[in-house]
Amino acid sequence: MRTHLRILSVPIVLALAALPAEGQGEHAHAAGSAMGGLGEVVFPTSGSAQAQAAFIRGVALMHSFEYPAAKTAFEEAQRLEPAFAMAYWGEAMTYNHPIWMEQDSAAARAALARLGATPRERAVKAPTERERDWLAALEVLYGPGSKPSRDSAYAGAMQRVFEKYPDDPEAAVFYALALLGTAHGGRHVPTYMRAAALMEEVFRDHPRHPGAAHFLIHAYDDPTHAPLGLRAARAYSRIAPGAAHAQHMTSHIFIALGMWDDMVRANEVAQGVVNEARAARGQPATWCGHYAFWLEYGYLQQGRDAEALRILRDCHAEASAPGASMPVVRSFVSMRSRYLLDTEDWGGPAAELFARTASDNVARLQDAYAAAFAFLRDGEIEGGIVLAEEVTRLREVIIADPGAARVGVSYPDVSRVLAQQLSSLLYLADGRPDEAVALLTLSAELEERIPFEFGPPFIDKPTRELLGEVLLGLGRPAEARAAFEAALRQAPLRVQSLRGLAMAHERAGDLARAGEVRAMITEIQRPASAQAAVR
Q: How far is CA 245 from CA 191, 240, 249, 252, 268, in A?
């Protein structure tokens, strides 16, 4: 047993060597091309030089949430040195995804069992006190109790590691990530700011650390705090060009600031890294998933509807193929709903695209919501009533399912907002405008109480935006203007809300302000205008 540390005197600048990335739902992404970098990580251990290199590669990949590729790297470290305790720590850590509230504790415990049958047996195989401290914190994460209780206890354990080793950037980074993983009710700003304070110091002292930049973005990716994360967003894509997730993550800040050109570019690069890696493995390109959904949304904001439709068609081909996975089907349904609600092209080609959703109630509910919305906005009331009732029924089925937590901690409230929106449109169709406005107002207040979810609006049709449109239709432009302004505070520079705001100013007689808002839309959609001019 070795009793010394091979302290690395300089950071290891990582380059990927053919690292596979197998799918894990919509969050598993390709690790990048053979020459892609992962940033700089210093994590001294007692491992041999070769095993240490694989270990460091795994840690860097894990900091960019490239979990499958990280697992492969840690397994390589184990192969090179079967008694290397920290390699088993690393593999077990790849099964914990704090930001996504995902954890495969059974797989993690199985990985640890290969090191030793009990925590004591595992601890004695770690030759240094520092490594034993890291293992002890991990034992808390995968110990007894519910996931929320273990997550909180693990954050406490990582705080103790950090306090014991205050100059260790990895202790600070993993402590910050553990804090973010305690926000089970959604974004909890005080907790997020505690994590950000830790990361600010690491990012200052280690400006090429992938975890520091990455987790700062997560801490700041809401419209209020996003300006604080812009420096990290600008840096992260350069720190880890070989990680698709790093390219995408920058767009969390860009979308919160309405920086549509940057948001689109980031997701184009991320999707390109994914498809490049798939091509290297002999797999076809994919246009379903997290990055594709964000890219479609960005194209829609820029007025590039044809390109958004192309992505949707390609995803549809995957989702309608025999054996399509449920994440792929859900991805298509989300993209189709987003396209229809943002373009309002109810009778266009997207309306003719369908996928098998019968086995998944979440996908069926979203499909039914989009269809009901289309019927009601087009005045086809009978069809809207049937589908609105289906939304309510499916909502009740999903909430009653003990496994419904898998679709998001706020799903009961989100689905309630969807059902109330449809009910308000039915009130409007029935000649009861005051009841429609009152219900939409209540629904908007409920939506604003739901913990903020980064990215495209988590309610496909933001309720304040819908309220503004209804108020415009009722000839109440001043109230409509207030509704659109509130919608834009939640989704800055969202074009659909800007259009409504311009119209509200116009109908209220403020032509100057209407012109200013329309100029903003023109600037956002400049890429589409440029393409049209070329054609």
A: 23, 9, 6, 11, 12
Rounded distance, CA 77 to CA 44, Å? 14
- Read off the tokens for 336: 């189709």
Statement: residue 392 has pLDDT above 50: yes
Say which DSSP state 304 is in.
-
Separation CA 470–CA 373 (nearest Å): 13
User: What number is the average pLDDT over the span 99-127?
Assistant: 96
Provide the mean pLDDT of the chain.
Answer: 90
Yes or no: say if 206 and 172 are a contact pair by the CB < 8 Å rule.
no
**pLDDT tier at 451, thresholds 50, 70, 90:** confident
Q: Are 195 and 188 in contact (CB under 8 A)?
A: no
Q: Cite the beta strand spans of 94-168 per DSSP E.
A: 96-97, 102-103
* Cα–Cα–Cα angle for 520, 443, 377, rounded to 5 degrees: 65
pLDDT above 80: residue 402: no
CA distances from 396 to 371, 390, 391, 393, 445 (A): 19, 10, 9, 5, 21
Pairing of strands 12-15, 37-41: antiparallel
Find where tokens 């604080």 sit.
Answer: 228
Helix (H, G, I), strand (E, B) or coil at 37: strand
Burial status of residue 475 (CB atoms within 10 A of its CB: 0-12, 13-18, 19 or more) = exposed
Q: Pick the closest to residue 73 from 242, 247, 222 (CA basis).
A: 242
d(CA 43, CA 213): 17
Better-scored residue on pLDDT, 473 or 101: 473
Cα separation, 304 vs 306, whole angstroms: 6
Question: What is the dihedral angle through the alpha carbons of 6, 10, 11, 17, rounded to the nearest 10 degrees?
Answer: -80
Q: What is the number of alpha carbons within 13 Å of residue 253 lying toward its C-beta?
A: 26
Asked if 372 and 387 count as a contact pair (C-beta separation under 8 A), the reply is yes
CB atoms within 10 A of CB 433: 16
The pLDDT of residue 407: 58
CB 196 within 8 A of CB 219: yes
